[in-house]
Amino acid sequence: MFHVLVTDAISADGLAPLLEADNIKVYRNNENYNPKDIQALLVRSATQVNEELLSTLPNLQVVARAGVGVDNIDIQAATKHGVVVINAPDGNTISTAEHTFAMISSLVRHIPQANSNVKGLEWNRKKFIGTELFGKTLGIVGFGRIGSEIAKRALAFRMKVVVYDPFLTESRAEKLSVTSLPLEEVMKMADIITVHTPLTKDTKGLLNKSNIHMLKKGVFLVNCARGGIIEEEGLLHFLNNGHVAGAALDVFEIEPPTNRDLVLHERVIVTPHLGASTKEAQYNVSNQVSKDVLAFLNGHSVSTSINLPTIPKEIYNKIQPFFQLGKKVGSILSQAMKTPVEEITVTYAGNITEWETSILTKSIIAGFLRNRVDTTVNEVNAAAIAKERGISYGEKHIDESYGYSNIIEVEAKGKDIRMVVRATFIEGYGARIVHMNGFDIDFSPKGHLLYVQHTDRPGVIGQLGNIFGKHETNIATMHVGRMLQGGKAIMMLSFDQTLDNRLIDEILQIPDISSAITLDL
Ligand SMILES: NC(=O)C1=CN([C@@H]2O[C@H](COP(=O)(O)OP(=O)(O)OC[C@H]3O[C@@H](n4cnc5c(N)ncnc54)[C@H](O)[C@@H]3O)[C@@H](O)[C@H]2O)C=CC1
Ligand SMILES: O=C(O)CCC(=O)C(=O)O
């Protein structure tokens, strides 16, 4: 049973995929739950997913944001904890674009102010002379999902649209009938500017006290993206001196807003972060993340992730068995070597090279690190932990697959030590280790194993068998590999339980056995 915690107001209809799943128990914040049970956390923007919260949920695997902006989630901390972060990037695009457009129309026609006036039993028609949108220039800063939906609506209103987005290609701008320009040009030309970027170090205060004077006198400013992209102090200054004709704000530097002078300004209209607040958007984002969380917990791929490369489902299904195998190969090396490792090289051959293998490499590194660190390690944080531990890694694709349809070879190197394990996955037969340190062998990497290095001499296997017999320990399977008769050889034995260390000590007394290492997979 997987345990999912929902901390913010998330549409119950949209949660149906989780609520209806047999293997999922959903808790709302006000219900009793054991933090140690929680494997998935679903939030909107109210919950701050930070180091403090993450450390209270030790078994958390995934945090899902029912929305776009993940600024309430400390991605670095989540990544460090091995927690996958997913969001719902397009479920609320239309609602937010429509809200922004409603704000633009309301702003230039003073609708909220006029509404209050009439409700205050006044009838002041002269005070609320507005401005037409027709023929005006709309400047859109940030031309992603929402920005481009706004452009379509503005064009329908026969506005000219100029946009600034450093990542926008000429062909996309052309396709959407907008003119892409440097920020300074957009600032000089626009009658109305609306911002639709994420809040980053580059976009914080993009329009501010020192550059708003460059805008046209009488410009209208709109922020339905994130508080702070238009600096509130600068905005207020230019509203007060009349340079800015009005502003529409759905988002604030601090929410709820504390800048009373700005919120109460007569030429400022405000909404309480309502961009995504429609039945449709809330259903969409909640349904999208619920499906992704369910897929993730059941070991399938997710459609979108912030800190994990996403793989198309068909490909994920094909490479799924290799993830398990990769982790086991990493774990074999880690347990067999027992010494510091500085470099790991993963080589892929055969049909596996047709797919994106970087995430598979991360799962091998995670498998290697798991036995060596006491934190959760997975594909999300493997690279960071490897770096922290001074382990470099790389991958390559080669043609030689030794007659198998696919091969994963992992070489780990430390000071004066090197080990190589080669594995394959055979459809209908399963995962096999087919080579270790120069020896061809063939065993299934699972359960409790004993890896023995010995000299190929008559009687060694018999002596080993005697020790197990004496200790009433049943050998489940046994595979031997050697290069030359009478030379160095290896054995891989499997057991139904973990082996006692005293038994290993006894085995090491056999003169022709140079090492015996237990591997628990
Ligand atoms: N008010 C509300 O309720 C909602 C607000 N939002 C916010 O709206 C914003 C936009 O969302 P989407 O369009 O879905 O995101 P998106 O990721 O599709 O688009 C963002 C665009 O900003 C551009 N960008 C990044 N840095 C830039 C910079 N320095 N200068 C100019 N452009 C830059 C990117 O290239 C991208 O095209 C986000 O901040 C999101 O959190 C989203 C949904 C609801
Ligand atoms: O209503 C919400 O959850 C906020 C939506 C939002 O700001 C976003 O998706 O980025």
TrEMBL record:
Cited InterPro entries: ACT-like_dom_sf, ACT_dom, ASB_dom_sf, D-2-hydroxyacid_DH, D-isomer_2_OHA_DH_cat_dom, D-isomer_DH_CS, D-isomer_DH_CS1, D-isomer_DH_NAD-bd
Q: What keywords are annotated for this sequence in UniProt?
A: Amino-acid biosynthesis, NAD, Oxidoreductase, Serine biosynthesis
The reaction(s) catalysed by this protein are:
(2R)-3-phosphoglycerate + NAD(+) = 3-phosphooxypyruvate + NADH + H(+); (R)-2-hydroxyglutarate + NAD(+) = 2-oxoglutarate + NADH + H(+)
User: Secretion signal: which residues?
Assistant: none
The keyword NAD is assigned to this record: yes
Domain (ACT) spans: 449-521
Q: Name one GO molecular function term.
A: phosphoglycerate dehydrogenase activity
Q: What class of enzyme is it?
A: oxidoreductase
Reported EC number(s) for this entry are 1.1.1.95
Q: Tell me the route in metabolism or biology where this protein functions.
A: Amino-acid biosynthesis; L-serine biosynthesis; L-serine from 3-phospho-D-glycerate: step 1/3
Q: Which PANTHER family match?
A: D-ISOMER SPECIFIC 2-HYDROXYACID DEHYDROGENASE FAMILY PROTEIN (AFU_ORTHOLOGUE AFUA_6G10090) (PTHR42789:SF1)
* Assigned protein family: Belongs to the D-isomer specific 2-hydroxyacid dehydrogenase family.
* Role, per record: Catalyzes the reversible oxidation of 3-phospho-D-glycerate to 3-phosphonooxypyruvate, the first step of the phosphorylated L-serine biosynthesis pathway. Also catalyzes the reversible oxidation of 2-hydroxyglutarate to 2-oxoglutarate.
This one is known as: D-3-phosphoglycerate dehydrogenase
The scientific name of the source species is Sutcliffiella rhizosphaerae
